[in-house]
């Protein structure tokens, strides 16, 4: 006869440390700390004496609660924080009464901030250069930046940055970003969600030669300042996204000629320029400059009336040729 025994875990504290770590990693650290740190010696050791990294995410919170968390939990554990997400603009000012404080977060790898204070942001970026492990930066800035180029330059000086996402409000008279002579950034993944002018793109890309992923959500061109050439190079670019783009097809062709030879994934949405609906133009562009393209995601929006609808239907039908079927790229359209 064989006998077997089974152990059933009926209490949370009976879970092994490895599982506890996984659970605490999912939960908000400040709340977890307040609930469990004084529950028993084991949880106190896990939360207070551990060297494991922690994530801090602060959004909706009262000032008294924030001040308590800041003093009792965040600052005593600043050496363990590897992710800091401050999605409340008013909390940013409270979190960094002095911009030098951020340099004490030596383990920080990811910083996400939503701020309204231009001076605070500029000073903060200068201190970020002292963080050797900061590899991911997201900035949302809702007030006017009178010199957005200074902000770009400060970001490009961050020594370990690989991922950068920006949503900025800028003054229209901020001048041109200078071309990089020798200064380059290690950024590989760049997302710019604010408006960006095509004639500034060459200078911007001169700072980020290692880009693999580029997303420009509001790329536009000026009719009296058309871009004629690019001197920067992106030999590793495989993913390019252009949402809400307002450039001409011949300007896109210029981009493709210089940057798209290794491109595998291309997302683009455009408005009004009917040349984007010329399937022959697309076939020539892809065959000439995008030989490695796998994913082609294209959306075009335009204004129609009864007399132009048939014209557009005929243009769209051109995308039903063998060129598109062989690549398993299929198109749908809607008139409304």
TrEMBL record:
**Matching InterPro entries:** F-box_dom, LRR_dom_sf
The record's annotation in SUPFAM superfamilies points to: RNI-like
Where's the F-box domain? Answer: 9-56
Q: Which residues form a coiled coil?
A: none
Protein name (database record): F-box domain-containing protein
Q: Which organism is it from?
A: Adineta steineri
């Amino acid at each position: 006869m064989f006998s077997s025994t089974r152990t059933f875990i009926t209490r949370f504290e009976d879970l092994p440390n490895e599982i506890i770590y996984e659970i605490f990693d999912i939960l908000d650290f400040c709340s977890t700390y307040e609930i469990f740190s004084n529950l028993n010696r084991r949880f106190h050791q896990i939360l207070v004496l551990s060297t494991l990294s922690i994530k801090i995410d602060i959004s909706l919170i009262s000032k008294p609660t924030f001040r308590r968390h800041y003093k009792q939990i965040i600052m005593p554990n600043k050496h363990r924080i590897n992710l800091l997400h401050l999605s409340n603009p008013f909390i940013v000012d409270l979190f960094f009464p002095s911009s030098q404080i951020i340099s004490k977060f030596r383990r920080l790898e990811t910083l996400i901030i939503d701020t309204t204070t231009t001076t605070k942001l500029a000073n903060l970026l200068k201190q970020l250069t002292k963080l050797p492990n900061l590899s991911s930066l997201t900035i949302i800035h809702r007030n006017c930046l009178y010199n957005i180029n200074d902000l770009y330059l400060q970001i490009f000086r961050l020594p370990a940055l690989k991922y950068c996402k920006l949503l900025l409000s800028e003054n229209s008279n901020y001048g041109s970003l200078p071309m990089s002579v020798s200064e380059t950034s290690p950024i590989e993944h760049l997302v710019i969600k604010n408006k960006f002018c095509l004639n500034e793109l060459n200078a911007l890309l001169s700072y980020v030669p290692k880009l693999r992923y580029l997303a420009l959500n509001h790329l536009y061109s000026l009719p009296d300042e058309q871009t004629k050439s690019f001197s920067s190079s992106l030999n590793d670019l495989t993913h390019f996204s252009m949402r809400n783009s307002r450039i001409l097809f011949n300007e896109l062709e210029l981009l493709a000629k210089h940057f798209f030879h290794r491109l595998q994934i291309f997302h683009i949405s455009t408005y009004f320029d009917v040349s984007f609906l010329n399937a022959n133009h697309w076939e020539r562009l892809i065959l000439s400059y995008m030989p490695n393209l796998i994913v082609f995601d294209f959306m075009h929006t335009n204004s129609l009336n009864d007399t132009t609808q048939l014209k557009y239907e005929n243009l769209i039908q051109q995308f039903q040729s063998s060129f598109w079927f062989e690549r398993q790229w299929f198109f749908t359209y809607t008139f409304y």
